[in-house]
Write a structure and sequence with these properties.
Keywords: Cell membrane, Membrane, Transmembrane, Transmembrane helix. Its main location: membrane. With 259 residues, the chain is mostly helical. It has one domain. 81% of the residues lie in helices and 0% in strands. The chain contains 11 helices and no strands. Helix 3 crosses helix 9 and helix 5 packs antiparallel against helix 11. The radius of gyration is 17 Å and the shape is globular.
């Protein structure tokens, strides 16, 4: 049976994902924890599949617009996919790795870091551009290495908390590619990167029976139409005020989860 409250939450999150590339984990997981009282492991497990399927629907729109930077995606995958696979394997071998109290706090901390990162993103870009202009060859050499390393970190975060692929990844790419990646390319690239990452991270939870299928269907009924709408609007709307509003929401949610 469809729960329309879940559908409404999915519609809101789907629109934000399509518009900004952010929200699969940073918004949906805290919403499930705070407003619906879902257990952390079930929230993470269900949200991983919610994010994968929702972003798959939005990715087609962004790909058709030619905004996906495939070189950056492949570098991120080189780090995130193996690390997410390893993390899922470890979880399947010993469920005690994911403790409820630790998981809830981990989600709150990552969401808070994300909120701060979004607020200081313009300063990070300015600092990165200054460094690249001074030492362009060295900066470019480090780009590939640091992108793969960022993928490693994101793989762990997403596999354990479902948070990180969009929000933390976006802040990282803004710093690493200040002259190359535009806001529209950033959204498209992060959405495409997150799809297989969420699927791999979600497989372990799926086989362990932690995914709530009825809740997932209710969420997707709302998110799939709105992520397409948000993706089509992404190229027409500036992300500045959206970033500020999202930062406030994330900071509030993060503090609520921790306190």
């Amino acid at each position: 049976m469809i729960d329309w409250l879940y559908t409404l939450a999915g519609a809101f999150t789907g629109f934000i994902i399509g518009l900004t590339g952010v929200g699969g984990g940073a918004l949906m997981t805290p919403i499930l924890l705070l407003f619906f009282g879902i257990s952390p492991t079930t929230a993470v497990a269900t949200d991983l599949w919610f994010a994968a399927i929702t972003k798959l629907a939005g990715a087609r729109v962004h790909h058709n617009s030619g905004n996906v930077d495939w070189q950056i995606v492949k570098r991120l995958w080189a780090g995130s996919l193996p690390m997410a696979s390893l993390t899922v394997l470890l979880i399947s071998m010993g469920a005690h790795i994911v403790k409820v109290d630790w998981l809830t706090k981990g989600i709150g901390i990552i969401v808070l870091i994300t909120a701060i990162g979004l607020l200081v993103a313009p300063k990070l870009i300015a600092f990165a551009r200054k460094r690249q202009s001074k030492q362009p060859k060295r900066f470019q050499t480090m780009q590939a290495i640091l992108t793969v390393f960022a993928g490693l970190v994101l793989g762990i975060c997403v596999a354990l908390t479902s948070v990180g692929a969009g929000v933390l990844g976006s802040v990282t790419l803004l710093y690493l590619y200040p002259l190359r990646i535009t806001p529209h390319r950033l959204v498209a690239t992060e959405i495409v990167h997150a799809i297989p990452l969420a699927i791999i991270a979600g497989l372990g939870y799926l086989f362990a029976g932690m995914v709530d299928g009825h809740m997932l269907i209710s969420l997707l009924i709302g998110s799939i139409p709105t992520v397409i709408i948000g993706s089509k609007l992404a190229s027409k709307i500036t992300g500045r005020w959206i970033r500020y509003a999202l930062s406030v929401v994330l900071a509030t949610v993060g503090l609520k989860v921790l306190l």
